[in-house]
Amino acid sequence: MQQTGRIRLILNDEDIVLDDVPATGTLLDWLRLRRRLTGTKEGCAEGDCGACTVLVGRLLDGDLVYESVNACIRLLGSLNATHVVTVEHLAAPDGALHPVQQALVDHHGSQCGFCTPGFVMSLYGLWLASDRPGRPEIEKALQGNLCRCTGYEPIVAAAEAVAATRPSAVFDPIERTRADVKEKLAALAPRQTIRMGEVGNRVVIPADVGALAEVLAAEPKATLVAGCTDVGLWVTKQMRALDPVVFINHLQELQAIERSDGGLTIGAGVTYTQAFAALCEMVPALRPLIDRIGGAQVRNMGTIGGNIANGSPIGDTPPPLIALGATLALRATAGRRELPLEDYFIEYGRQDRRPGEFVESLFVPAPAADDRFAVYKLSKRRDEDISALCGAFRIALDHAGTVTYARLCFGGMAGTPKRATHVEAALRGKPWTEATIVAAAMAFEQDYTPLSDWRATAAYRMLAARNLLMRFYLETTGETAQLHRFEEVA
Amino acid sequence: MQFDKPATTNPIDRLKVVGQPVHRIDGQLKATGRAKYAYEWHDPNVPYVYGYPVGAAIAKGHIVSMDVSAAKEAPGVLAVVTALDVGERKKGKFNTAKLFGGSEIQHYHQAVAVVVAETFEQARAAAALVRVEYAEEIGAFDLKDAMKTAIKPKDVGGAPPDTAVGDFDGAFKAAPVSFDATYTTPDQSHSMMEPHASIAVWDGEALTIWTSAQMIDWWRSDLATTLDVEKEKIHLMSPFIGGGFGGKLFLRADAVLAAFGAKAARRPVKVALPRPFMVNNTTHRPATIQRVRIAAEHTGKITAIGHESWSGDLPGGQLETAAMQTRLLYAGENRMTAMRLATLDLAEGNAMRAPGEAPGMMALEIAMDEMAEKLDIDPVEFRIINDTQVDPEKPERPFSHRDLVSCLRLGAERFGWSDRGRPASRREGNWLIGLGVAAAFRNNLLVPSAARVRLDHEGVITVETDMTDIGTGSYTIIAQTAAEMMGVPIEKVVVRLGDSRFPVSAGSGGQFGANCSTTGVYAACVKLREAIAQKLGFNSEDATFENGEVRSGNRSVPLAEAAGSEGLAGEDTVEWAKLADSHQQSTFGAHFVEVGVDIATGESRIRRMLAVCAAGRILNPITARSQVVGAMTMGVGSALSEELAVDVGRGFFVNHDLAGYEVPVHADIPHQEVIFMDETDPYSSPMKAKGIAELGLCGVSAAIANAIYNATGVRVREYPITLDKLIGGLPDVT
C-alpha cells in the first residue's frame, strides 16, 4: 500500500511523528517498550484495572479537553492529533510532586505501587475537570482503577484532601501549555487520508466521512475502530490479526449531537461520556445505568456507535435505546438508509450492515412526558462489571390506567439485544396492575431462551427478567428499589 | 544470632524511629512511576527481544505433536522453544506442577511453548500460530466429587493432618447444646496488580534475571534446578514487586520461559504472563469444604469442638490447612481436627495470603456465630467465655502473649456493638442493617533471616538483604530498624533489597517478613556496632549509638569518623531456637462490620468496618495500618464476590481475568478503621513484633457473613455471599 501521510501527536512535551505504526499496536506497548515510559503499567490489558491510565487531550468542538483513557486497549493509530500525557509528565522539572501525587504519598495511598500511577492520572484528570469535587465525583473518577493491596480508603482520602485544600500546583504541565497545544492539535488534523503499512498490517485514517465511505467500499472487511474498548480486546486477548484497521475516532462529522423537539441525533463517534450527558438530560432515568458502564476511562473512549455496531448481546446501550424506539442511520458510498435499531441485530455475530456500510448516527426520540421508563443492569459486581442482563422498560398508560404502549428490551437474554414482544403484547390493553404483571411475566419464556454461562444461569436470567418487570411495576407505584451511588453528581 | 531466650531491653526499645509513623520511603518513587518493576529493567545498549507464552489448551493428557513451522516463519520470530524441545526437567522444591518441559499436561494453560520475536506484537502474533495436538485424558475437577476419595496425607507442613484430644464424639453427643454445619469456600485468585514477568540475560553459563518474586532464594534455587545450572551462576533481582499475596512465593513459568527463550534466541528476553495466565497457569487458593461441630454447656463453655476440611490439588500437592486455627483458638476439653486432600487436575493450589487460616476462619467464625445464637449468648461474649491462655491441645504450652479478649471488648465498645439487635430487626428505608463480629487469628512464624549493614565515611548506613518489599513496607521498616540500632536519622539509611547477591532473608510470606527480616537487620547492626566499638577501642557493651555518634564514657566519635575511609560492615543471620516449642506464638484480633442489605434486591453493601489487632509491637503504624486496611478490603471480596468459576467439564477456571474475577472496587469500600493494641511480645524477637499482614484478612469475611445474617436473618454457608443466596429468604418488603 502506498504510504500517504504520517501520524502526528504530542507525547508529554515532545512532538512525535510516526510513519510506521503496527495496525494492532497499543498505546501502552508503544509507551513502555518503544518510548521507555514505564511509569504507565500493564495490569490486565483489557481496560479493567486502570493501571495504564493516561490522559489524552483532543479538540472537541474547538475546546481542548483532556480525558483519562486505558492505554492498554487504546490502539496507537487512534492518536493522531492528540496530546498524550503520562505520569512522567506530572512532577516539576525540579522533582516537586504535583499535588495529586503528593496527596497519595501523604495519605499512604500506595503500597506495592503498581496501580499508583494509574490512580495518579485519574486524579489528575479529575483535578483538571473539577475544582472542588465531592466524594461522588471522586468515586466516579476512580471507578475504573483497581487496587489489590492498599484498599481504597486511603486513596479516596488523598483525593478528598486535594479537593478540600486545592493546593496550588506550582507546576501544572497541562495548564501551562494549553494554548500552544490547542494550536498544534488544530494543525495536526489530517487534511488527507493517512495510509501506512503493508498488506496484513495496514492503518487507514480517513480524512473525512466521505473518505471513510470510499475506504470501506474498497475494503468492506476492514475493521472500523472508534473507541478501541472492544476491538482493543480482540487484539490483547484474542490475538486477532486485523487488516486494515480504519480509525474513525477523530472524525468530527461523526461526533455531532443535535437536539430537536423530537429527540436527539447522536453521531456514531460520540463517546459515552459525551452522549450520556445529552441522553440523561432528555431521559434522566438512564443515569443509574450510565454510571455503571465501565469506568471513566472506558466511558471516555467507548462510543455509542461502537456499542451498537459490534452487535454484542450484552452491550449496555442497545436495550434502553431500543425501548426508547431509536433508529439507526447507516451510510455507504451509495447513500444513507435508516432502520429501527432493533432490526439491526439479526442474530449472534450478525448484523444488518451491508458491505461498505458503517453506522453514521443514531436518532433517539424523546419519550412522551408521561411515559414511564426505567432500565436496570444486573451484574455480579455493582461497579465496573459486565451485565448478566440488562432490561429496559417503557410503557404509556391512558387515563383509565390501561397500558396503551409497551416496549421492553433486554440484553443478556438472547444472542442479540432483543425486545420482549410477547410480554409487550400481554401488557398492551391491560390495566397496569400487579395481576397484569404476573400474567405478562409468564410470556418471557416465549420471548427468550437465555443461555447459562458463568455470569448467570439460564434459570436465573429468566427469573430476574420477570422480577425486573415486577420491580418496574413497583417503582411506577411508588416503591424504590435502586441503590443510588452517585446521586450527588449533577 | 541465636534467638533463644525472650528479649530484654535493647536499643529498639528507644522507639525514636521504630514504632513511629514514618512515611513510606519509596512513596515518591511509586507516585511518580519511577519505581522499576520486573519488566521495566532496561539498558539502552542491550537489544532486548520479547517472548510470548503458549499455554496448554487441555487440562490433562499429553502433547502428541507440535507444529511450530508457521510460527517460526512469522515476521520477526527469532526462536520458538517448546516443552518437547526442552524435555522433561527436574522440578524445583517448591512447585507441585511442572512449569515447563516434557509432554505431560497436568493442567490447563501449563506452558507448552515460548515464542521469541524482535517485537512484542510479532511474538504475540506468532504465538497464535503454534499448533499442538493433544491426547486428552479424563481429569477430576469437582471437589464435591473428588472429596469422596480424598486421602489423609502423612503430614501437613510438619504438622499432623489429624489431632484429637479427649473424647470428642462422646462429649459432642452428651452436650446440652450442639451445632453441626458444613461450609464451603471457593477457589480464589491472588489477582495482584502486577502480572508475573521476567527478563533473562545469559552471559555464557551465567544468567541474570529480573523478576517479580517474593522469595529470592527459593526462586534462585528452583530455577537452578529446573535449568540444571549451578545456583551460583544465577543472579536474580526483584527490587520492586507489584503485589504478590503468595502468588509470587515460588518460581513461576515466566522466569523459566525467559531463560530458555533467551538461550535459544541468544538475546536477552522479556516474558510477561498475560493476565489470563495468572489464574490457570500459576497458583490459586484452593476451594474447601469444611464441617464444624461445636458443643457447649448452657453457660456457653465449649465442651467439644471439631473441624474437618477437604480441599484438592494436583497429585503430589498439598492441602489447604483450613482446620489449623481450630487447634489453638478456643478452649474446649474434647477436640478433633482432620484435613483431607482430594486429587484435582486444576492448576496448582497453593498459598494465598493467610493460607489455612483465611478460609478456615471463614467457616469457624460463622460457626461460632451460629452457636452463640443457639446458646442465646452474645457472640462477643461467647468468644470471651472460651478464651484460652494455653494451647488447648497441649495445656502445658502457654501462649507467649494473647490478648484476644481485649481486642473483642475494645472493638465492641468502639464500634457500638450494643446497638446490634435480633436478626432482621433493623431497617432504614430499603436497607436491612446488621452488625457482625469475628475473631482474627494467625500464627506468628519464624524464619531465619540475614542482612549485611555497612557504614561509610559519610556516616551513611547501607542495609543489604535479599528481603523483598511487595508493598508491605519492608524498605521503610528496615530503614527504621537500622536507624534505631545505629542511632542515626532515617535519612542516613539506604536500604537495598531483592537481590541474590545480598544475604538470604526470610523473604515475604506467611506474615513473617516484617518481624524476621528486621530481626536479621538488628543482628547485622549488632555486629556492626561491635565492629565500630572494637575499632575505637570501646567496650561494645557500654557503647551508646545516638545522634550519629558512638559514645562510651566521656568519649564520643561521629560515626562517619569511626568508619574511616574504608568503612565498616556487619553481617549476621538470625536463627530461631526452640522458644516457639515452649510458647505458642500467634497474633489476634477482632473484626467488626456493619452491612446494609437491600430488602428488595438482596444486594449487600458494607457500611463500616473496624479491626482491632494484637500483634506485638507495631513497627510502623502507617505501614501496618495499610496492610490491615488492604487485607480488610480483600476480605470484602472474599465474602461477597470473589470466586473462580470451575468449568468441571473442561477443567479450567473460566473467569480468568479482572473482568470476570471480581475483586472489590473502591465504591464497595466504605469507612475502615484499625486499632492496634499497645503491646510487645518478647518471645517473638528482639523487635518484640509479630506479623500483621495476614491477621488483617483472617476473620473479616466471616464478620461480614455474620453481619449479613444479622441484617437479614438468612444464613449463607457457601461463599461468596451473592444476592441469589439471600433473595429467597429476605423479609417481606412491606
TrEMBL record, chain A:
<keyword id="KW-0408">Iron</keyword>
<dbReference type="InterPro" id="IPR002888">
    <property type="entry name" value="2Fe-2S-bd"/>
</dbReference>
<dbReference type="Pfam" id="PF00941">
    <property type="entry name" value="FAD_binding_5"/>
</dbReference>
<keyword id="KW-0274">FAD</keyword>
<dbReference type="InterPro" id="IPR005107">
    <property type="entry name" value="CO_DH_flav_C"/>
</dbReference>
<dbReference type="InterPro" id="IPR001041">
    <property type="entry name" value="2Fe-2S_ferredoxin-type"/>
</dbReference>
<keyword id="KW-0285">Flavoprotein</keyword>
<dbReference type="Pfam" id="PF01799">
    <property type="entry name" value="Fer2_2"/>
</dbReference>
<protein>
    <submittedName>
        <fullName>Xanthine dehydrogenase small subunit</fullName>
        <ecNumber>1.17.1.4</ecNumber>
    </submittedName>
</protein>
<dbReference type="InterPro" id="IPR016208">
    <property type="entry name" value="Ald_Oxase/xanthine_DH-like"/>
</dbReference>
<keyword id="KW-0479">Metal-binding</keyword>
<dbReference type="InterPro" id="IPR016166">
    <property type="entry name" value="FAD-bd_PCMH"/>
</dbReference>
<dbReference type="InterPro" id="IPR036683">
    <property type="entry name" value="CO_DH_flav_C_dom_sf"/>
</dbReference>
<keyword id="KW-0560">Oxidoreductase</keyword>
<dbReference type="InterPro" id="IPR006058">
    <property type="entry name" value="2Fe2S_fd_BS"/>
</dbReference>
<feature type="domain" description="2Fe-2S ferredoxin-type">
    <location>
        <begin position="5"/>
        <end position="90"/>
    </location>
</feature>
<dbReference type="InterPro" id="IPR036010">
    <property type="entry name" value="2Fe-2S_ferredoxin-like_sf"/>
</dbReference>
<dbReference type="InterPro" id="IPR036884">
    <property type="entry name" value="2Fe-2S-bd_dom_sf"/>
</dbReference>
<dbReference type="InterPro" id="IPR012675">
    <property type="entry name" value="Beta-grasp_dom_sf"/>
</dbReference>
<dbReference type="InterPro" id="IPR036318">
    <property type="entry name" value="FAD-bd_PCMH-like_sf"/>
</dbReference>
<dbReference type="InterPro" id="IPR016167">
    <property type="entry name" value="FAD-bd_PCMH_sub1"/>
</dbReference>
<dbReference type="InterPro" id="IPR002346">
    <property type="entry name" value="Mopterin_DH_FAD-bd"/>
</dbReference>
UniProtKB/TrEMBL annotation, chain B:
<protein>
    <submittedName>
        <fullName>Xanthine dehydrogenase family protein molybdopterin-binding subunit</fullName>
    </submittedName>
</protein>
<dbReference type="InterPro" id="IPR046867">
    <property type="entry name" value="AldOxase/xan_DH_MoCoBD2"/>
</dbReference>
<dbReference type="Pfam" id="PF20256">
    <property type="entry name" value="MoCoBD_2"/>
</dbReference>
<dbReference type="InterPro" id="IPR008274">
    <property type="entry name" value="AldOxase/xan_DH_MoCoBD1"/>
</dbReference>
<dbReference type="InterPro" id="IPR000674">
    <property type="entry name" value="Ald_Oxase/Xan_DH_a/b"/>
</dbReference>
<dbReference type="InterPro" id="IPR049648">
    <property type="entry name" value="PaoC-like"/>
</dbReference>
<dbReference type="InterPro" id="IPR037165">
    <property type="entry name" value="AldOxase/xan_DH_Mopterin-bd_sf"/>
</dbReference>
<dbReference type="InterPro" id="IPR016208">
    <property type="entry name" value="Ald_Oxase/xanthine_DH-like"/>
</dbReference>
<dbReference type="InterPro" id="IPR036856">
    <property type="entry name" value="Ald_Oxase/Xan_DH_a/b_sf"/>
</dbReference>
<dbReference type="Pfam" id="PF02738">
    <property type="entry name" value="MoCoBD_1"/>
</dbReference>
<dbReference type="Pfam" id="PF01315">
    <property type="entry name" value="Ald_Xan_dh_C"/>
</dbReference>
<feature type="domain" description="Aldehyde oxidase/xanthine dehydrogenase a/b hammerhead">
    <location>
        <begin position="32"/>
        <end position="138"/>
    </location>
</feature>
